[in-house]
Amino acid sequence: MTETRVYAGRLAGMMLMGPYGDSIGRVRDVVVTIYQHRSHVLGLVIALPNKRQIFLPMLRVASINPSEVMATSSSVNLKPFQSRSGEISIQHELVGSKVHTDDPEHAELHGQALEIVDVELKQSRTRDWEVSRVAVAQRGRLGRLGKVAVVPLSRIQGLSASGTGPADNNAELLASFQEMRAADIAIALNDLPEEQQTRLAREIPNERLADVVAELPEDSRIAILNQLGVERAAEVLEEMEPDDAADALAELPAGTSDVLLDLMDPEDSAPVRRLMSFSADTVGGVMTSEAIILTPQATVAEALAHARNPDVSSSLSSLVFVVRPPQSTPTGHYLGCVHLQKLLRHPPATLVSELLDLDLPALSVADSHETAARFFATYNLVCAPVVDEGNHLLGVLAVDDLLDALLPEDWRDQDWRVGNEAQKEPQTSLQEGHADA
């Protein structure tokens, strides 16, 4: 039975299994961030059979069972685990540290020095994991622990972004980023000095940093990618959507972009190279190769399973595109598309080929941005198929990517509000806020 609550102490030593029953390693620790009683479980520290310790993001954890942890894939990143600023390893740093509590349910513990014994983790409705409760106890004169009390995290005092004790500015910012959207993190970073931007970027995990870099203004994006070093920059680009990676590489000097493309995994770099071959002022230059693309034999159930994938944006999950093999772009003959709402109205076993919208035209890679804007306005859609002259699906254009191309180049440097309200309520940067504190 899959568990939605588990103590970190029980996880330690559990086997990590692949989806086909293959053993990957053992859980050694849990990595979290905690800031002002808000928490986020980042992932697990896994000891491989060769004793190397690696990091497994919680996104790669399929389930936690009573006796084992199941991974979504047997393929793991073999890069040795290194803790970053603002991250806390529960067993290594948190257990055994001193705190106190103001929990009204445990008035007898008020004003007492307590020791953390274990930490309870809980999966939220959004499927993210967080710290819910902390097991604490008093240590007696002879070194023995007294009765254990379980206290809500919100009632634990003495914790900071870096464990126990005072937290540094960067650690607090990194912890606060856990609660923010990528676009808001980009705004916050853009308000900081370049040196601090780089320090913070180095501490953000690749998957998260990829989303943030995509939202940054051009100057900040170039600066961060240059300062990360080519190996880390290539890893971040691999995690980005192909169209965002193509945009970022196009902003760099040709020599640098060539090096980064060569360092990227060929499977990730191939669609990026293809997108970079199109003119930036055409639909081909702003489309993405990431979309829900199925064959005619796929069912409604399969299509909805793809649409539920959290890695697929809301705009790209609104339409399912049906093609003849191959499914990877450029695909075989493009047959048509099905809207998500239509899928929801039909039985799971229905073939998607029976529900195709055959009247919706497709965009061409050579179409202008204005043509694409008129398309979206005419058909009230948030993404559209893009085909070549042979009617092969080359990609999909999302309305947010089109807006990004149509807005002024410096729009990310400005408040998203327009008119008097933005002038009356100027935004205070994080840098200024911490300077006053």
Automatic annotation (TrEMBL):
Residue intervals of the CBS domain: 356-414
InterPro entries, per the entry: CBS_dom, CBS_dom_sf, Mg_transptr_MgtE_intracell_dom, MgtE_N_sf, MgtE_transporter, PRC_barrel-like_sf, SH3_actinomycetes
GO molecular function: magnesium ion transmembrane transporter activity
PROSITE patterns membership: CBS
Region (Disordered): 417-437
Record's keyword annotation contains Iron: no
One Pfam assignment: CBS
Keywords: CBS domain
SMART domains: MgtE_N
The keyword DNA damage is annotated on this UniProt entry: no
Gene Ontology cellular-component terms listed: membrane
Lineage top rank: taxon: Bacteria
Protein name: CBS domain-containing protein
